Amino acid sequence: MLGYLDELQERFFTWCDKVVQDYIDREKAELKQWWPRKNPDGSYELVFKLGALDKGLSTRSVLIPEEFHELLEREYFIDHPPDKEEPTAGV
């Protein structure tokens, strides 16, 4: 089991898991990779790649609720420019 730093972090990852699982179930796909992305307007998206046997690899994005923006600023985007499209590892 993963250890979370605080309740907000636990809620964020629970939210991410639910969003991605909904897409996996709906599209009968497998999660390949996911990451948060900051948009130029300051909003955040959860971006994830899914692999489906009959459709190949697809990329999806869902807006992240504002309640998690401060967490993302603090934990994930200290050294990342807002226009960073995706991580290079794990693909």
Explain briefly what this protein structure is:
With 91 residues, the protein is an alpha+beta fold. It has helices at 7-27, 69-75, and strands at 30-38, 44-52, 56-63.
Radius of gyration: 14 Å
Counting DSSP E segments of at least 2 residues, the number of strands comes to: 3
Broad shape:
globular
Return the average pLDDT rounded to an integer.
82
Count of helical segments?
Answer: 2
Distance between the termini: 25 Å
What pattern of helices and strands is seen along the backbone?
HEEEH
Helix content: 25-40%
**Low-pLDDT residue spans:** none
Enumerate the strands of the largest sheet in spatial order, edge to edge or round the barrel.
Answer: 1-2-3
Largest sheet: number of strands, sense, barrel closure: 3 strands, antiparallel
Helix/strand/pairing class, anyone? alpha+beta
Beta fraction: 25-35%
